[in-house]
């Protein structure tokens, strides 16, 4: 198994300032003006502790957005906090579906929880066969859509993984980038199923740390038992409430549709480059590529001012895997030009 230090590598490390950033999958450079205004308004309230009313308002808004009840909502300091809380469930065996976002593994291994990798293969389209998950796993964690493969698992496959005595964690940090949020379990009250959501990507809020968990109230209570008092601040609560409002949800939906169009354009352009394989179908705001001599290509792109996400720190992937964020076609042009220059015959050693 990889050292935990490798698993802590994320796209933000690849995206050094000054580089054209295809490594981080955040939409845009800053939150929209209306959301910024809501955060500025909330600043008036940071002279006092975050109140139960702020928390209740955020949970109510999220509950309405997903057709759940407020006691099925736990506001988090980002989906990442949800992973960090998982050891509180005292799992005996955690099955982690890979390649996938690695923070759940970091949290579990650091806490001494035995971890089993369910490795999905490119040859199978990184599709999940529920039978590959060990029966004895009392915690199963996967992403939908999955980072970095961009695979969207069918909701039925995920429902089939739920069992009495097991907690199934579905990381839906990118689900709001999927038009119609098809295959989401966020709106379903299922025993033992915990859905994690993030405001980070769609709303360009990585620095705020805001997200939430949806799940059965007793499960949320177990997760939250050892959290500090006031675990999330007033600004985070304001953002969670604001981004759950109908206008925000409609804006996210429009952005998801636009991203799907941009992704199709980028995938087609990449597929025309010599020696690039694009993993399709893709549902997230990013594409997983395979190129020969990937480490050289990544370094060469960086020298040309372009950051892409290395793939080899994801269990199951290699240095030939690269992940690129979907941007609008105009912004993708430098990536395509640089890749073409690096991949033309004679350059690949
Ligand atoms: C798949 C996935 N899940 C969760 C997270 C963490 O999200 P947050 O910023 O809400 O903690 C990330 C961040 O990169 C991610 O890629």
TrEMBL record:
Gene Ontology MF terms in the entry: pyridoxal phosphate binding; transaminase activity
Keywords linked to the UniProt accession: Aminotransferase, Pyridoxal phosphate, Transferase
UniProt KW Transferase keyword: yes
Limits of the Aminotransferase class I/classII large domain: 29-338
Cofactor dependence: pyridoxal 5'-phosphate
UniProt superkingdom: Bacteria
Alphabetical list of PROSITE patterns matching this protein: AA_TRANSFER_CLASS_1 (PS00105)
InterPro entries xrefs: Aminotransferase_I/II_large, NHTrfase_class1_PyrdxlP-BS, PyrdxlP-dep_Trfase, PyrdxlP-dep_Trfase_major, PyrdxlP-dep_Trfase_small
Enzyme class: transferase
EC number of this enzyme: 2.6.1.-
SUPFAM superfamilies, alphabetized: PLP-dependent transferases (SSF53383)
Keyword Translocase among UniProt keywords: no
UniProt-listed Pfam families: Aminotran_1_2
Family: Belongs to the class-I pyridoxal-phosphate-dependent aminotransferase family.
Protein's recorded name: Aminotransferase
Organism in which the protein naturally occurs: Actinophytocola xanthii
Taxonomy of the source species: Bacteria, Bacillati, Actinomycetota, Actinomycetes, Pseudonocardiales
């Amino acid at each position: 198994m990889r050292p935990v230090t490798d698993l802590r590598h994320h796209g933000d490390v690849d995206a050094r300032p000054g580089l054209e950033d295809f490594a981080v999958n955040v939409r845009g450079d800053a939150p929209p003006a209306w959301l910024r205004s809501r955060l500025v308004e909330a600043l008036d309230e940071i002279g006092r502790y975050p109140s139960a009313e702020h928390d209740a308002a955020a949970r109510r808004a999220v509950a309405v957005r997903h057709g759940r009840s407020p006691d099925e909502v736990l506001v988090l300091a980002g989906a990442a906090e949800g992973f960090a809380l998982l050891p509180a469930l005292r799992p005996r065996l955690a099955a982690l579906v890979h390649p996938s976002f690695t923070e759940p593994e970091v949290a579990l291994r650091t806490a001494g929880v035995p971890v089993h990798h369910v490795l999905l293969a490119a040859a199978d389209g990184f599709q999940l066969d529920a039978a590959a998950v060990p029966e004895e796993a009392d915690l199963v964690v996967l992403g939908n859509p999955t980072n970095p493969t961009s695979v969207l698992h069918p909701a039925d496959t995920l429902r089939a993984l739920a069992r009495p005595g097991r907690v199934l964690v579905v990381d839906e940090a990118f689900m709001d980038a999927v038009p119609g949020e098809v295959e989401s379990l966020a709106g379903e009250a299922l025993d033992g199923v915990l859905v994690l959501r993030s405001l980070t990507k769609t709303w360009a809020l990585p620095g705020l740390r805001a997200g939430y968990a949806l799940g059965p109230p007793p499960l949320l209570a177990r997760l939250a038992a050892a959290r500090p008092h006031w675990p999330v601040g007033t600004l985070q609560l304001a953002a969670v409430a604001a981004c759950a409002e109908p206008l925000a949800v409609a804006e996210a939906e429009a952005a998801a549709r636009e991203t799907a169009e941009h992704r199709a354009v980028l995938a087609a352009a990449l597929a025309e480059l010599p020696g690039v394989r694009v993993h399709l179908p893709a549902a997230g705001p990013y594409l997983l590529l395979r190129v020969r001599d990937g480490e050289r290509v990544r370094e060469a792109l960086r020298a040309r001012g372009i950051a892409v996400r290395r793939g080899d720190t994801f269990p199951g992937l290699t240095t030939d895997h690269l992940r690129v964020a979907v941007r609008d076609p105009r912004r993708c042009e430098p990536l395509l030009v640089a890749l073409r220059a690096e991949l033309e015959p004679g350059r690949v050693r």
